[in-house]
Design a protein that fits this description.
The chain is α/β, with parallel strands linked by helices and 367 residues long. It is built from 16 helices and 17 strands. The protein has a domain of 244 residues: TIM Barrel (Alpha-Beta Barrel). Strand 16 and strand 17 form a beta hairpin. The chain is globular, with a radius of gyration of 21 Å. Bound molecules: 2-acetamido-2-deoxy-beta-D-glucopyranose (2 copies) and zinc ion. The site of one 2-acetamido-2-deoxy-beta-D-glucopyranose (NAG) has 3 residues, from loops. The site of zinc ion has 8 residues, from helix 12 and helix 14.
Length: 367
């Protein structure tokens, strides 16, 4: 759909006059994406319990897929023959793939790190060894064909060199968000000097984010490029990090918790009980239009249809939250939105310190 030969065009449309929040349009080869955006995770090219056409109807513009899982099954050869993951899974929106490194670290046993790559040992009885090299990660991600792809940590230049589709896929380098400020600054400087279209940041926990973190990481990025905070998806974290100037988020949480029978609301996670109200009287999703908490309570975690119904609601919740954030930035009332959101969550005004400190660093004071 793109009429230019740039794989990513990012335009800031509105900025909060108080904090660092902004609303932007990100034009990708397969879709125009409104940011700040939350991206749900479709691990193996499927978002569990939802058809791609249902996701499109919900207004989802972009989702994430996992390089390691897709590289293992169906593998790059099938994906190449299929003409890429978009066609293979029947998804017309935008896609983003991770580097594969995170899954390898969590699913395999780390064997050896060399300059060539990282060697992993499979944990199953076959005891086979797998090597993750930057070239291999980029080859799989080129076969998947996502609009945005991730660099394997440490080897940005080898990733850029191995990239075979720079006209249709953008590489985002990953900046390490450790607690060591000097290391972060080195990592950020290393990345901002390269010709890349956006930046990804990893932190171990969103709670580690603070006003300081903003000062040491986000201020170094060029303002005209998107900033993607990986693995963050609790509503409260999204609100705080939008205030700090983050544009993109992903997390398995909203869809995974749905499969465990948990529904998301503005006041937190709802445990379904035997009452005849919808999950959220203000939610316009099809689950809330037609099904009661009592009905859902009787079927959650047991029947696949309940997985669908709760996933639909949780995705609608995340999408609505992001739209409310964007609207309030556009309408110049984002600081009030944040204060109302936090008061609703903590009516006793007993706000966690990390929230107060992070928001104070960008001039938002809570009620
Ligand atoms: C629904 O929205 C209205 C108006 O914003 C609000 O007063 C009310 O508390 C909301 N109800 C629920 C169940 O969230
Ligand atoms: C609710 O169910 C009815 C059928 O009973 C259907 O016609 C309608 O489209 C459903 N509403 C939504 C929002 O899906
Ligand atoms: Zn709903």
């Amino acid at each position: 759909m793109s009429t230019t030969n740039k794989p990513l065009i990012f335009t800031v449309l509105a900025e909060c006059k108080v904090c660092k929040a902004r609303v932007s349009k990100m034009i990708l080869p397969h879709k125009e994406v409104d940011t700040p955006v939350f991206m749900p995770v479709g691990t193996q090219g499927t978002l569990k319990g939802m058809l791609p056409e249902q996701l499109e109807k919900l207004g989802l513009q972009i989702m994430l897929a996992n390089t390691y899982h897709l590289g293992t099954k169906p593998g790059p050869d099938i994906l190449k023959k299929a003409g890429g993951l978009h066609k293979f899974m029947n998804w017309n929106g935008a896609l983003l793939t991770d580097s594969g490194g995170f899954q390898m670290v969590s699913l395999l046993k780390l064997a050896e790190i060399t300059e060539e790559g990282v060697k992993f040992q499979s944990l199953n009885q076959h005891k086979s060894e797998v090597m993750l090299t930057p070239e291999h990660s980029i080859e799989i991600q080129n076969a998947i064909g996502a609009d945005i792809i991730m660099q394997t940590t440490r080897w940005l230049d080898r990733c850029l060199g191995a990239h075979s589709k720079p006209e249709t896929q953008s590489i985002f380098p990953i900046v390490q968000g450790t607690l060591y400020e000097e290391l972060r600054i080195i990592s950020v400087n290393d990345h901002t000097s390269r010709d890349v279209h956006g930046f990804a940041i990893v932190v171990e926990k969103a709670k580690m984010i603070s006003g300081k973190w903003y000062t040491y990481v986000l201020t170094f990025f060029q303002k005209n490029k998107p900033r993607y905070l990986m693995g963050v998806g609790f509503a409260v974290d999204l609100v705080v990090c939008c205030a700090l100037g983050v544009d993109m988020f992903d997390c398995v949480f909203p869809t995974r918790t749905a499969r465990f029978g948990c529904a998301l609301t503005m006041t937190g996670q709802l445990n379904l009980k035997k009452d005849f109200n919808p999950i959220d009287a203000n939610c316009t999703c099809s689950t809330c239009q037609n099904y009661t908490r009592a009905y859902l309570h009787g079927i959650v975690t047991v029947y696949p249809v309940a997985c669908h119904l709760l996933t639909e609601h949780n995705l609608a919740f995340q999408l609505r939250l992001m739209k409310n954030i964007r609207d309030s930035i556009h309408e110049n009332r984002f600081p009030e939105f944040v204060a109302d959101f936090m008061l609703n969550l903590h009516p006793d005004r007993n706000y966690p310190t990390w929230i107060k400190d992070s928001l104070a660093a960008v001039n938002i004071n809570l009620l």
